[in-house]
Design a protein that fits this description.
GO terms for molecular function: transferase activity. This is Glutamine amidotransferase. Pfam families: GATase. The chain contains 6 helices and 8 strands; from the N terminus they run H-E-H-E-E-E-E-E-E-E-H-H-H-H. It is of the alpha+beta class. The protein has one domain: Rossmann fold (3-Layer(aba) Sandwich). The strands form 2 sheets. The chain has a 6-stranded mixed beta sheet, sandwiched between helices. A two-stranded antiparallel ribbon has the order 2-5. Strand 7 and strand 8 form a beta hairpin. Helix 1 crosses helix 2.
């Protein structure tokens, strides 16, 4: 967890600050999303409402309309999620571009070349299915419904495309 402040993680946080200083393209996912926020002065901690897990809808926020990368994205799209910690407070200058019903910071823009997602654009339904099955007892203990989560699994092309668009736009 980012809040563990492990030496390797704090080293990477310093690297993120240096990368931002030289405007290196950065795309963070889940832990990377949280670590970017922490490195740049935001607050990361356990989500007050507990774990977010499953295939959930992501809603773009008004700021996404002006964002070069997201301005033509659908207003909402499904994404695969699994996290306990979250960005509680954005770093100065960062902008939240999307949310879920559980988490107000699903996509954050940190600068012209730096963005991150709390959700997992790299996951397929099979990845999330394996995680749900492996954590079945824990999810039930936390009052989640694994069967409902499994039934809700679907492909998430728009969520995946955010990461792909970021990468491809840097290669042009």
């Amino acid at each position: 967890m980012v809040t563990d402040r492990e030496p390797w993680s704090e080293y990477v946080a310093q690297w993120i600050r240096e990368a931002m200083r030289i405007e290196m393209p950065l795309f963070g996912v889940c832990y990377g999303h949280q670590l970017m926020a922490h490195a740049l002065g935001g607050v990361v901690d356990y989500h007050p409402a507990g774990r977010e897990v499953g295939c959930e809808m992501i809603q773009l926020l008004p700021a996404a309309i002006a964002d070069e990368m997201l301005k033509q994205w659908p207003a909402q799209f499904p994404a695969h999620l699994t996290h306990e910690q979250t960005v509680i407070t954005l770093p100065e200058g960062a902008v939240a571009l999307a949310r879920s019903t559980h988490d107000p910071h699903q996509i954050i823009r940190y600068g012209r070349h730096a963005i991150s997602t709390q959700y997992h654009p790299e996951f397929t339904p099979g990845h999330l299915e394996a995680m749900i099955r492996r954590r079945h007892a824990l999810l039930v203990a936390e009052q989640h419904d694994p069967a409902q989560m499994l039934n809700a699994l679907q492909k998430t092309p728009s969520a995946q495309a955010v990461m792909c668009h970021f990468v491809w736009s840097r290669l042009e």
